[in-house]
Amino acid sequence: MTEQQFGVEGIGDLLRRVEEIPPSQNDDPLTLDALVERFAALPAEPGSVVVISLPNSARLLRIFFAVSLAGHTPVMLAPSTPPSRVRDICRHMGAYALIRTSIRPTDYGLSDTASIGGVDLAVFTDWQYQRHGRGHVILMTSGTSGMATGCLHSVDSLLRNARRHAASVGQTEKDTVLVSLPVFYSFGLVAQVLGCLVSGASMILAGPPFSVTNYVETITRHSVTVSALTPIQVKSVVGVGEELPAPLRTLSVGGQALDPSYVSRLVKLNPELGLYLTYGLTEAGPRVSTLAAHREHPDRYRSVGLPLDGVEVLTRESSEYGERELLVRSDTIYRKRVGEIPLSKRGELIEEGLLATGDMGYVDDDGYVYVSSRRSDFAMVRGEKVSLATVRKAAESLPNVVRAAARVMADDGNDDDFARVGLDVYVNDLDVPTEAEVQRSLRALLTRNERPGEVRIHPLRSGEFHK
Fold it and tell me: Which architecture does CATH list for 156-331+338-374?
């Protein structure tokens, strides 16, 4: 399938190859063609933004593709996102409509909703709509840039990136791919879902929560041959100390870098497994490089591999950090930022097709890419990226809060992968809130992983500003 063949027939074929665990409840009998007609009939200009906040499911895929095929611009959000946060994102995106499993109109400042495809749809009327033309998708930046920041990509470039990723891990039409990562993140959507579309592979669609027992059983029961995990999930798998079931021949690891010691243990436990370490970021479209770890000497386990076909990784001096910053040149780089002004410089465009990643590292003489550190203001909390700037901004939006400072805390055992966010809140001493009151207020503004594990209140004397 070429990029130009992204249509109802190709998507319909993909959806027929999807087996869902567990299946959607109360699913709507509308076909993909009927859904496309329904979305095309909305009184919205082509390219209007439609925000979709649904859990991993065949329904989510069908609605996402139908919105795109109808000529609108879909953007997916985590279904756990609080209503006030969803409304704020929709406002920054200039969204025409919102789709969720169930919408209580008063939560979003609306008067009513409609039903379409077994879900609720609400149309906003109190801000100016933004339009991006046909054939575009907005990918949210996973908390690394801010509360409501996304990247505008063309569907063509996402399919191109998916094809390159699938080729880098050897995925073909003979494979059965387990999609267990959230598809509202760029890796799940592009590398996994669109990867199945362009390679012709079948798809087993699962979702959180993750457990090693369920993971192994799913691989065995459905003869899964290709899977992708986050580093924290890999650590759980390695901790069991057993070889993964024989049907699985390819495992890729994305997200935060995986410690080389776990790479070694995983390779030793699974001598017949193809283990691929991948690197990317949403702004890049998203995949950048892949390391076939099972074919490399352990000295290379710290690398994120070789750039994908059509991708070039460069470096430049970074006087701010005393290291070299990685740059990515590709025809899959995002078109422009949308939504809120980014809180981080990570992922800035230097020029069309050239990206400043915000990651420090180097490229060795053989072309292998190494990432040493990131300058982004974020933490990894239970395997998900959390923007400390987002937490800080949410706290500073509360009444009487003069300033807030977010920090990374470690749980018992000092395991950074289970880091929590700590928050110092500096308040006007005329009306000092309790920690419980601050936590309660933040629940409506932050996702579960963003909510601070500890809040320290610091009253300020009148006129004082803590720096």
Answer: 3-Layer(aba) Sandwich (3.40)
pLDDT tens digits along 182-218: 999 999 999 999 999 999 999 999 988 889 999 999 9
Please tell me the distance from the alpha carbon of residue 449 to that of residue 248, in angstroms, as a whole number: 31
Pick among 3.40.50, 2.40.128, 3.30.70, 2.60.40: CATH of 3-134? 3.40.50
Can you name the CATH fold of 378-460? GMP Synthetase; Chain A, domain 3 (3.30.300)
Helix (H) or strand (E) holding 263: helix 260-269
CB of 289 within 8 A of CB of 305?
A: yes
**Residue 115 bridge partners (DSSP):** 120
Report the C-alpha gap between 281 and 457 in whole angstroms: 35
Q: Is 88 helix (H, G, I), strand (E, B) or coil?
A: helix
**Torsion region of 29: left, alpha or beta (phi above 0 gives left; psi -120 to 50 gives alpha):** alpha
pTM of the model: 0.84
Residue 6's nearest CA partner among 71, 95, 97, 98 is 71
Can you name the residues that pair with 427 across neighbouring β-strands?
401, 459
